[in-house]
Design a protein that fits this description.
It is a single chain. The chain has 119 residues and is an alpha/beta fold. The chain folds into two domains: 3-84, no CATH class; 87-119. Helices cover 51% and strands 13% of the residues. It is built from three helices and four strands. The protein has a four-stranded parallel beta sheet with strand order 1-2-3-4, covered by helices on one side. It is rod-shaped, with a radius of gyration of 28 Å.
Length: 119
């Protein structure tokens, strides 16, 4: 687990550094960014705050923080996996073509059976 911090609150950042010191890496290496303000990033962001849009509300415990980090990482991995998983739906033309091919095979099989019986 690789985490980066982007906090405006010095006190919050120091607390997070203490809680997460073994997981902290530079922003470009991180899997997740923890922030106390709205942040636009291509990486998932766990936002800590007092508003309803925050992923984790203050005050919080170290265990609650770790649980939220795991949930956020798991949700991001699931979304990433779903992006690569596409269900191919048959178009109308493909369905009609497949039905015609099945029909042609069945008719050919009927003729083959009929003429083999006569021999």
């Amino acid at each position: 687990m690789k985490l980066a911090l982007s906090c405006r609150s010095v006190l919050l950042e120091k607390s997070l550094r203490k809680f997460l010191k073994s997981y902290l890496v530079p922003d470009h290496e991180a899997e997740l960014i923890i922030s106390d303000h709205p942040l636009q990033s291509p990486k998932p962001v766990l936002r800590i705050g007092a508003d309803q849009e925050a992923d984790l509300n203050k005050p919080f415990s170290r265990s609650r923080l770790m649980i939220k980090i795991e949930e956020k990482l798991k949700a991001d991995r699931t979304q990433e996996a779903l992006k690569h998983f596409t269900i191919e739906e048959e178009t109308l033309e493909e369905r009609v073509e497949n039905a015609a091919l099945r029909f042609a095979r069945e008719v050919a099989e009927i003729f083959k059976e009929h003429y083999e019986k006569k021999k």
